[in-house]
Amino acid sequence: MELYNPLTIKLLKNKYGFQFAKSFGQNFLIDPDVIDGIAEGAALDQDDFVLEIGPGIGVLTSEICRRAGKAASIEIDPHMVEVLHDTLAEFSNVHVIQQDVLKADLSRIIAEERGSCSRVKVLGNLPYYITTPIIMKLLTEHVPAECIVIMMQKEVADRIRANPGSRTYGALSVTVQYYCEVSEVMEVPRQCFMPQPKVDSAVLRLDVRSKPAVDVKDEAVFFRCVKAGFSQRRKTLLNSLMTMGESKDRVRSALEAAEIDPRRRAETLSLEEFGRLSDMFVE
Ligand code: SAM
């Protein structure tokens, strides 16, 4: 079955009587080159276990099943799960799990499903309404994956990849880059989906670091500092960092000790500078 073919999608729609659910961010891939590109970007082989997020009708899932050793695909929509039993019938190495990915115990699923696969990778054409929460869950819960290859809105991908000094650099860039090395696999125009979304997309590969990009004394303080800094991007660090609940004097002396000009803004700070600064707030 050519699942990327719009005619196949229409046939499945009629057969199973489902509608594209906007509330679940259902935009299905109809370009085989993009499907190949995601699989290639993840360099899948038989030693890989893939956790897929949001399989839809299974277009990427079937490619994963062909290339990887084993897979588990988490899909929230029961209509899609019914379709998947049909479209994935030829594969015995995939388990479809009907669940909300945000509520799932992903580490447990991986432990139960990976079998003898030596590597774990996370793949998915993400539902855009929850892209950031999914990424944050994968990283902060330390899901044991070595790489994450995911499609998202181009605008979110740009924020994740942004460097200090750029308009799109923010808390999301710092957080993802703290945990992962980020690279772009490809850009994907909106015409590659059915129904066509209003925005273009991009596929990123996140290689999870064996240890974070910077050594910090206390991770919670590091992230409080990042959050406070970007909570008021237009303000100087001296002012924005006070939203951490610290006095102006304390913030000023921390900035001085870290050798960071108090007139600078968070969007100019490198990860290393955020690390140095946050260490000054740790007793
Ligand atoms: N992988 C398919 C493709 O590329 O054609 C579908 C991708 S579509 C952008 C996102 C998929 O995620 C949909 O099938 C949708 O039902 C599913 N989804 C949405 N919210 C979800 C959630 N909270 N947990 C799991 N799956 C979800």
Describe this structure as you would to a colleague.
The protein is α/β, with parallel strands linked by helices. The protein folds into two domains: 6-208, Vaccinia Virus protein VP39 (Rossmann fold); 219-279, rRNA adenine dimethylase, C-terminal domain (Helicase, Ruva Protein, domain 3, Orthogonal Bundle). It is 39% helix and 18% strand. The chain is built from twelve helices and nine strands. It has helices spanning 6-16, 32-41, 59-67, 78-87, 106-113, 131-140, 154-161, 171-179, 219-231, 237-240, 248-257, 271-279, and strands at 28-29, 48-53, 70-75, 94-98, 119-125, 147-153, 180-188, 193-194, 201-208. The strands form two sheets. A seven-stranded mixed sheet has the order 4-3-2-5-6-9-7, sandwiched between helices. It has a two-stranded antiparallel ribbon with strand order 1-8. The longest helix is centred in the C-terminal third of the chain and has 13 residues, at 219-231. S-adenosylmethionine (SAM) binds next to strand 1, helix 3 and strand 3.
